[in-house]
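Figure 6 in text form: structure in, sequence out.
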């Protein structure tokens, strides 16, 4: 899931996905010597808001993919990229 956002934005921008795989040995070394940096680089950024959605009876207007697509379209229309 961590890379899903980057992949979806790259797809909608029509650009190559530039995610570089990091070997697990390298990850283990970083985790051993610099755990804070490891958490920032490889930690899970997903927030579970299912309980809040349930309590508020919230149903999103857009899917994840639709939301990213609209955001990228807005960005293209409002920037000099």
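Output sequence:
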């Amino acid at each position: 899931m961590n890379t899903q956002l980057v992949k979806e934005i790259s797809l909608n921008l029509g650009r190559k996905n530039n995610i570089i795989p990091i070997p697990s040995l390298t990850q283990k070394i970083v985790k051993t010597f610099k755990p804070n940096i490891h958490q920032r680089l490889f930690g899970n950024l997903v927030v579970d808001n299912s309980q809040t959605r349930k309590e508020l009876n919230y149903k999103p207007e857009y899917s994840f993919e639709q939301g990213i697509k609209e955001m990228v379209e807005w960005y293209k229309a409002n920037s000099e990229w």
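Caption detail: The chain has five helices and no strands.
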